[in-house]
Amino acid sequence: MRLLLFGGTGAMGVLLAREFLWVYKNSSTLVLYVRNAAKVPEDLAQDRSVVIIQGELDDMDSLSKAMHRVDAVITALGPTGRKGPFYPSGTPVAAAYIRIMVAMKGQSVRRLIALTTPSVRDPEDHFNLPLVFLRKAFAAVAPNAVKDILAIGRVVRAQRAELDWTLIRLAVQTSNDDEDPANCEVVAGYMGDGRTNAVSSRVGAAVFIIEELEKREWIWKCPILSTPTRNSNP
User: Fold this and answer.
1) Helices 202-215 and 11-24 sit at what angle, rounded to 10 degrees?
2) Cβ-based neighbour number of residue 18 at 10 Å
3) Contact 78, 117 (CB under 8 A)
4) Does the domain formed by 2-226 have CATH 3.40.50.720?
5) Which residues, in sequence order, are bridge partners of residue 6?
6) Spatial distance between the Cα atoms of 8 and 28, rounded to a whole number of angstroms
7) Separation between Cα atoms, residue 164 and residue 66, nearest integer Å
């Protein structure tokens, strides 16, 4: 498999890259599209299965070249609340997604897994107080970032006829990146379904996402990933 990963220098992106290389070992190629190649961790930069392409998200020529012969795309791009009220008033990340999807269609790549947050809603969701509180708190602190996140959800969902997409909504992630995957179970579901909650293992999420590349159990769906609730069924 040849995978193109965006956001591969962030905490989640690095875990996804390492998990992909571990699962597929010598039978894969991982293409990292990054703004600054110097930020790629040394173990990934020196791996012979990794191709690093340095480019901007508004460079259609570079995006098209990166997409060549790719089987699937994972995007770990997304707005954060770090800039708070100073986040740009437009939707820059959603615009980048549009360009990425144009490049995918130009190279006949259908499979897309996009990471987002529970700010994106789904018809299958029900009321869940902790997640509603987090959603409202984030919207109050960083309204423009939430606007961009919601725009990402809309532009990805609009591609159902042409792309096999999955929108993965990550709950609040644990910060320990050295967790043993065997102890980092995550479940996929919807808000208020009695199985999901407000916390997710970053390592467990990476394992789930890489497995979903071939399992394809969540095509055209928008699950929340979280640690299982105490009363969830096995």
Assistant:
1) 50
2) 19
3) yes
4) yes
5) 33, 75
6) 16
7) 19
Please compute the mean of the pLDDT values over residues 70-77 and round it to a whole number. Answer: 97
Using CA atoms, how far apart are residues 70 and 75, in angstroms rounded to an integer?
14
At 123-175, the pLDDT tens digits run 999 988 878 887 788 788 778 888 999 999 999 999 999 999 999 999 887 75
Q: Is the dihedral of CA 122, 210, 152, 224 positive or negative?
A: positive
Domain ranges of the chain: 2-226
The predicted model scores a pTM of 0.91
What's the one-letter identity of residue 56? Answer: E
Identify which of 44, 40, 38 has the alpha carbon closest to the alpha carbon of residue 21: 44
What is residue 46's three-state secondary structure? coil
Q: Quick one: which H or E segment has residue 104?
A: helix 92-106
> Dmax over Cα atoms in the chain, in whole Å?
50
